[in-house]
Design brief:
The structure holds 3 protein chains of 3 kinds.
Chain A: H1 2-12, H2 15-44, H3 47-50, H4 65-72, H5 76-107, H6 113-125, H7 132-141, H8 149-173, H9 176-184, H10 189-218, H11 221-226, H12 236-241, H13 251-283
Helix pairs in contact in A: 2-13, 4-13, 5-8, 5-10, 6-8, 8-10, 8-13, 10-13
Chain B: H1 3-16, H2 31-57, E1 60-61, H3 64-67, E2 74-75, H4 79-85, H5 88-120, H6 124-139, H7 142-152, H8 159-164, H9 175-204, H10 207-215, H11 220-248, H12 252-257, H13 270-280, H14 284-311
Antiparallel strand pairs in B: 1-2
Helix pairs in contact in B: 1-9, 2-14, 4-14, 5-9, 5-11, 6-9, 7-9, 9-11, 10-11, 11-14, 13-14
Chain C: H1 5-13, H2 16-20, E1 44-51, H3 57-73, E2 77-84, H4 89-98, E3 106-110, H5 114-119, H6 127-132, H7 141-145, E4 148-149, E5 152-153, E6 156-161, E7 163-168, H8 169-174, H9 183-196, E8 201-204, H10 210-219, E9 225-228, E10 231-234, H11 239-249, H12 259-262, H13 267-275, E11 279-285, H14 289-293, E12 301-304, E13 320-326, H15 333-343, H16 346-356, H17 363-372, H18 377-384, H19 396-401, H20 404-413, H21 419-437
Parallel strand pairs in C: 1-2, 1-3, 8-11
Antiparallel strand pairs in C: 3-13, 4-5, 6-13, 7-11, 7-12, 9-10
Helix pairs in contact in C: 3-15, 3-16, 10-11, 20-21
The chains are: A mainly alpha, B mainly alpha, C alpha/beta.
Protein name (chain B): Sugar transporter
Pfam families (chain B): BPD_transp_1
Organism (chain B): Streptomyces violascens
Chain lengths: 285, 316, 438
């Protein structure tokens, strides 16, 4: 890590500059974190304080009322579970499929390879929302409307191109010598793929999963359009929308539901944070 | 597990192992196609086929009556497109989309790069604080992010108006202030990607280079312009193109924060416009035509990107 | 030109977009949905969509009770009620028409949507059952008209909705103002109140509150559209209509209801403002009575018919109201019709009136509740003075869901366009839809 040490030395050159930079970084951190702080704070505020004309940045009497309203809402646990199932399936399937595809386009040379790569890039550009229309009819013809399948399938398709694109860098990073050595040892191609390549690329898979997870977890458009009448198949964002009422938005409930919705993603992020940062770095190599 | 160590790993993994050269690639026969089969099946069925249908519907008369089977579908040729292009609202929405996306991309890149440089100049604690805050913003789902920002700027109960002393000023009433509000949210949730990526890139630059520049008395801005940008160019290209892709397609933020497009549709962008045309007014063919236009614009952007890549002699 | 798979394929292969498609995909437009029911099961799950009202609680209680009674009488029937937001109902209901398999069996719908839903092929013709239903003979003719298209009945009226002027007795008295008797007085009074009490809207109005705006249009002799041999032409840009639009939009601004807030409001928001004591007057319906009673202004308000142009006259009110209809795709038709009769029957309507103030659609029940509850008197009087409705064109639903009128009002009150330009643009949009819908 010599470069890092040198970098620290480089920074030390100007001391007052560093103090200003640190102050700036802390201010930026506070500004960036403020919306999240306000969300959690409002979720814990008692009803009278949330909708107050003089909001205070703290509360002296935290209350769980808003969370109670969220959790006692019809089938909330079910919505949560549904969201997990959708996001989980998308993550697992897309990681697996993308791994295979990324291996194919980086470890092999074949006709149409470049064409395919360009197609994967172009596919990322497709505006998901514009495809809601044909996907609606496709899901209907497949008999998937009103089921979680109608959410899993499109998200799988939309997360794949980016996942393949991102994983490419990781597969490329595994030295070919390793593959040749494995072949000399008599390992079959399949064995190499799953027992050597897969573990090596795993950090990249995790980083990729973050993006698939977020996309699937956040979705509210497909949930809104494809889960037509079967409320037992609804996902979390729908539970959030319930608190937007015609008469007056229940901001306490909205903030509590938002907190509950953000939490799993945050946990997931913290868990894979190290790999995420390295993944992003790897993808752009 | 601190971001600092994470980043060091980040840099090490891909850098330490040079990418294999051309000679290593094998002719795998059918194997690559076997590996590609699941991906191609999923993409073909759920991406290519719907795109194809999108194009098809855009040439048909396809409204609610056709969907329900009340009336036969009829071929319209370019009728939907000429209807769209003669609608002045379409052009103003298109302009708004392009300007808004450009503003979002520029702001996101500026904030992300500035904070990435800042990160390299501070000690571990402030760095950890900023890194965690950024990860939090990144992790926030678009829909909750939008509602939280709306609440922050709520005319009656939000803290922002109190702090700024704006009374019950409504941010969503004016066209530009509504767009500004959405832009702030978009930047907030998308700058972390840029910051983390660029930061990882800067850490991979050999320290001696930066040190030499600093000893020469170059200002921070000059170091960024003349040393970092040239070395980070591949990374900057990727984050720019990625931001263009994401910001051009902003949907949730506009839909939630301006309640489906704002007063008299003043905050519509193409994506929301297409959705409203199709699902609110059940003019599926017009909505599809807008979708096709969007697709073509993004396709053009991709081609430019590919040309740039090829121009530099980079291999895919 | 009719579309065949071949012409479509030929046309498409020529296009660059088709180059994107992998080879071998069949060229066919999404199939149309077959909305006819396949079976008539006598047990199973019945899905019902009702509208979510301001203060929905009491409505829910009445419905729960009716549903319990129904389930008791029909063993094996499981009724699931979902309350859907009124603003986005169009998308939800269209989606249901598009996929019969996931559609509900029974829906509540606004009477302005009847013609459109019938044209979309979504509602079942229940003429025979309606004729055989003993309670139906007391349905008032206007209400029956609202479920009838081309002589066939497509549902049962649930309640009549008519709007009148809610005003704060204490505020007007305190400022020494009389209850307005003409439209000009109404506007002047609103502005006087706001000048004296800037924290109150004089008259709460909303840029997205079409049904509150229509009486201004009609009182000035304007019309939404004129019919000629079954063909509608927009009249929103006629001289008289523009006068009405100008009168309504003059209520937005710093003199009464600041555009920054009021341009975005819909009907519910104006009523909520009144109920919370933030407005001196509001145009609210009989169905809003419960919400206002539950607010902070209870006991401090009264209701009169919305004044017209001439002193003492009544501005034509919008004859609103909701119906309950069975979906054509329901696989439980007999059960669904039974539940429809339960929910729209006299007993339930009586309870809905007590709970929500929904005006019954049966002449005898309405007379009965009017005797019991004097608050309905101004609403019944508005109805009697001649209420009007929107054009009975299948295109109306689309005009409504494309927000043509709210857009026009919002363009004017936010200063983007003047009345003449905005109304001309709205007329053009309406004519486009009428032209397509026939």
């Amino acid at each position: 890590m010599s470069s890092v040490r040198v970098l620290v030395g480089f920074v030390r050159v100007r001391r007052p500059g560093r103090l200003a930079a640190e102050a700036g970084a802390l201010v930026a951190a506070v500004v960036v974190a403020f919306p999240l702080y306000w969300m959690v704070l409002s979720a814990f505020k008692p009803a009278g304080e949330v909708q107050s004309a003089h909001p205070r940045p703290w509360t002296l009497s935290p209350s769980l009322d808003s969370f109670r309203r969220v959790f006692t809402q019809q089938d909330f646990g079910r919505y949560f579970l549904n969201s997990l199932v959708v996001a989980g399936s998308v993550v697992l399937l897309s990681a697996l499929i993308a791994f295979l595809a990324a291996t194919a386009v980086t470890r092999f040379r074949f006709r149409f390879r470049t064409t395919l790569l360009i197609m994967f890039l172009v596919a990322q550009m497709v505006p998901v929302e514009a495809l809601t229309i044909p996907l609606f009819f496709l899901m209907r013809d497949l008999g998937q409307l009103n089921t979680l399948g109608s959410l899993i399938l499109p998200h799988l398709a939309f997360s794949l191109p980016f996942a393949i694109w991102m994983l490419r860098g990781f597969v490329k990073g595994v030295p070919v010598a390793l593959e040749e050595a494995a072949a000399l040892d008599g390992a079959s191609r399949t064995r190499f793929l799953w027992q050597i390549l897969f573990p090596l690329v795993f950090p990249g898979l995790v980083a990729t999963s973050v993006f698939s997870f977020i996309a699937a977890w956040n979705d509210f458009l497909f949930a809104k359009s494809f889960i037509i009448s079967d409320t037992s198949q609804s996902t979390l964002p729908m539970a959030l929308l319930v608190f937007f009422k015609p008469d007056e938005n229940d901001w306490g409930g909205i903030m509590a539901a938002s907190t509950v919705m953000t939490l799993p993603v945050l946990v997931f992020f913290v868990l894979v944070q190290r790999r995420l940062v390295s993944g992003v770095g790897g993808a752009v190599k | 597990m601190s971001p600092a160590t994470a980043t060091r790993d980040a840099v090490r993994v891909p850098v330490a192992k040079p990418a294999p050269g051309r000679r290593s690639h094998r002719q795998g026969g059918w194997t690559p196609w076997l590996y590609l089969a699941p991906a191609l099946a999923v993409l073909g069925a759920l991406l290519v086929y719907p795109i194809y249908q999108l194009g098809l519907i855009s040439f048909l008369e396809y409204t609610q009556a056709q969907v329900s089977g009340g009336e036969p579908t009829s071929f319209q040729g370019l009728g939907n497109y000429s209807a769209l292009f003669s609608d002045s609202q379409f052009w103003s929405v298109l302009l708004a989309t392009v300007v808004f996306a450009a503003a979002c991309v520029l702001s996101t890149l500026a904030v992300g790069c500035a904070l990435a440089v800042l990160l390299t100049r501070v000690r571990a604690l402030p760095r950890l604080a900023l890194m965690l805050a950024a990860l939090g913003a990144w992790a926030t789902p678009a829909i909750t992010g939008s509602t939280v920002w709306m609440f922050l700027f709520d005319p009656d109960f939000g803290p922002v108006n109190r702090v700024l002393g704006l009374g019950d000023h409504s941010w969503t009433y004016g066209r530009y202030s509504a767009f500004l509000l959405v832009l702030l949210e978009v930047v907030w949730c998308s700058f972390p990607f840029v910051m983390v990526t660029v930061y990882a890139g800067i850490r991979a630059i050999p320290g001696e280079v930066l040190e030499a520049a600093a000893l020469d008395g170059a200002s921070q801005w000059r170091i960024w312009r003349s040393v970092m940008v040239p070395m980070l160019r591949p990374i900057l290209t990727v984050v720019t193109i990625q931001s263009v892709i994401w910001d051009f397609k902003v949907f949730t933020q506009i839909y939630v924060m301006t309640n489906g497009g704002g007063i008299a549709g003043q905050n519509l962008v193409l994506n929301v416009y297409a959705y409203q045309k199709a699902f609110a007014s059940s003019q599926y063919s017009l909505g599809s035509a807008i979708g096709v236009v969007m697709l073509l614009i993004l396709l053009a952007a991709t081609l430019v990107y590919l040309r740039v890549l090829r121009g530099r002699g980079e291999e895919l | 030109m009719k579309l065949t798979a071949r012409t479509a394929r030929a046309a498409l292969t020529a296009l660059p977009l088709a180059a994107l498609a992998l080879a071998g995909l069949a060229a066919c437009a999404p199939q149309t949905s077959d909305n006819s029911a396949k079976s008539d099961d006598r047990s199973g799950t019945l899905r019902v969509w009702l509208f979510q009202e301001v203060s929905n609680g009491p409505k829910q209680q009445v419905v729960d009770k009716a549903v319990a009674a129904f389930e008791k009488a029909h063993k094996g029937a499981d009724v699931q009620v979902e309350y859907i937001p009124v603003d986005t109902r169009a998308q939800k209901i269209k989606a249901a028409f598009n996929d019969p398999a996931s559609a509900p069996d029974l829906i509540e719908y606004g009477n302005t949507d009847t013609a459109g839903y019938v044209k979309d092929g979504g509602l079942a013709d229940v003429s025979a059952e309606f004729a055989a239903w003993p309670e139906a003979k007391d349905t008032d003719p206007t209400a029956k008209q609202s479920v009838t298209v081309g002589g066939k009945v497509y549902g049962a009226p649930l309640f009549v909705g008519v709007r009148a002027l809610y005003y704060r007795t204490d505020v007007l008295k305190g400022l020494g103002l009389a209850v307005p008797r003409t439209q000009d007085e109404l506007i002047a009074t609103a502005k006087k109140v706001h000048r004296a009490k800037p924290d109150l809207y004089g008259l709460a109005v909303g840029g997205a509150y079409t049904y509150g705006a229509l009486p201004f249009l009609w009182a000035n002799g304007g019309e939404l559209a004129t019919e000629n041999g079954g063909k509608y032409t927009s009249a929103i840009d006629s001289e008289a209509s523009r006068k009405g639009v100008a009168a309504y939009t003059s209520l937005f601004g710093d003199t009464n209801c600041p555009a920054a807030k009021c341009a975005q409001m819909g009907g519910n928001a104006t009523v909520t403002a009144f109920a919370n004591g933030k407005a001196a007057m509001a145009i609210g319906g009989d169905f809003n009575h419960a919400a206002v009673e539950a607010g902070t202004v209870k006991g401090k308000y009264a209701v009169v018919p919305l004044p017209g142009i001439a002193p003492g006259s009544v501005a034509p009110a919008f004859a609103g109201g909701n119906n309950i209809g069975v979906l054509k795709s329901s696989s439980h038709r007999t059960l669904a019709v039974g539940l429809m009769e339960q929910l729209a029957g006299k007993a339930t309507q009586r309870e809905l009136f007590d709970a929500m103030g929904f005006l019954p659609t049966y002449t005898d029940v309405r007379a009965e509740v009017a005797r019991k509850q004097p608050f309905v008197e101004p609403f019944v009087r508005s109805l009697a003075a001649g209420a009007k409705s929107v054009p009975v064109s299948p295109g109306w639903g689309q005009i409504d869901s494309s927000l043509v009128l709210p857009t026009m009002f919002q363009e004017i009150v936010s200063g983007k366009k003047d009345v003449a330009k905005a109304s001309a643009d709205a007329a053009k949009k309406m004519n486009d839809v009428f032209g397509a819908a026939g």
